[in-house]
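Before drawing any conclusions, I needed to go through one protein's amino acid sequence and its backbone structure tokens, quoted below without any editing.
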Amino acid sequence: MHATREELDAQAQALLAQYADKKLTPRDRAQIPLQEMPTQAPEIRVANMQEVAIGYTESQVRIEAMRCLQCKNKPCIAGCPVAIDIPAFIAKAAEGNFAESVEIIKQSSLLPSICGRVCPQESQCQLYCTVGKMHKDIDQSVSIGRIERFVADYAREHELEKVPQVGEPTGRRVAVVGTGPASISAAADLRRGGHEVVMFEALHKAGGVLVYGIPEFRLPKKIVEHELNNLVAMGVEIRRNYLVGKTRKISDLMEKDGFDAVFVGSGAGLPKFMNIEGENYIGVFSANEYLTRSNLMKAYAVGEALTPLFDSHKVAVFGGGNVAMDAARTAKRLGAEEVTIVYRRTEVEMPARKEEVAHAKEEGVQFLYLHAPLRITANEKGRVNGVELITCELGEPDASGRRSPIEIAGSEKMYDYDTVIVAIGNDSNPLIKATTDGIEVNRRGNFIVNEETCETTLKGVYAGGDIVLGAATVILAMGQGRKAAKAMNDYLQTL
């Protein structure tokens, strides 16, 4: 049964009244029930692009924050790539002091509204939560991300945010390539250091993967725009429609345009394909293209957007990560009658967040486990009309620790689909490597950097985020942006 926000709020208010004057022991706190995230009902949300998770109420966030034991050794911080003082911001949230709560977060992270929505807290901060360990269930950990989201949204909506202070001008200029999470963090810290910072964005909208990759129903674009406006308020310049590597090379930025250092955060935007027969037929999309058409180009706004909408009825999505979930759930919202995730392993090995998988199931997405595509077929006009799949079984664990899928000979079978979305990951953007002498990359095309400083093999050029890590989380990318900015601030002082 789908509980409404009003019902969940009433339950939280009753709990607040119950605990109002009680001095809570750790045992008491651990017994407080986990607060359910209010969401749009599945049958309603599948027909719109609005955010699925509506957000905690004020009563809910205070009750959830009261579940925190305020451990002296603060184990949760060990799981945070940017080392936010989690118990401190939660304690302020429990008091109802949301403005101070978000200020504590912003000492370490510039993007709490975003990270609170899209970061996999269950494999980061919440993995180490003592409450989860007391219950022997990670899903019972304190909902750190949901509390972070609430206080950040509250501060934004009530205009309680403060523009970060900027240092005295140093006379140094820094170019930041890309406007995704790593670049945003680096730009903020470099600007705090007093340097002139210019960000270069290849697309017509800034925000990187936050804008083109993550759907509106998971991350509203007005939030990304707001965070970028905060950078502009700090004095950062953002130049759009500027493709570094083509419009200008890295060497041009440093030798001709007067930049003293460069941070590259251009992401992992090169989609991987499976190299099977039929991948060039009409109706086969990379998840990148499919999501970009919807998220950035607003293909779903029929009659308002210029981007044409592909007419899909039966969609197969290859992959099992968050991007596959995003693509499948987007396809449902774009009108497909049937959407199936085709995954080579079982649900246990699926890398997507539990919450995203649960939401996809609620919205009618089907899952076909232990199947792998062999070839895609098409009609006489070259349009997809089917996929041949083979059944798999799980063998021994591979290098990632997951059990390897083994194809079962003779189990091939044809399935009717008119659209295929390939969501098996991305490689690093190859353009800057191809146009920059002296930059070294590994066999996957990721930039090789000093682990302590994020400096590349080219002096004065630093890199972070997906261009270094491959496809990573928003908070991991931000952590690298901050690490690089610290090293760049030190480097710029020596010039």
Observations:
- The longest strand covers residues 384-397.
- The chain has a mean pLDDT of 94.
- The CA atoms of residues 127 and 138 lie 6 Å apart.
- The chain has three domains: 5-158, 173-268+428-493, 271-422.
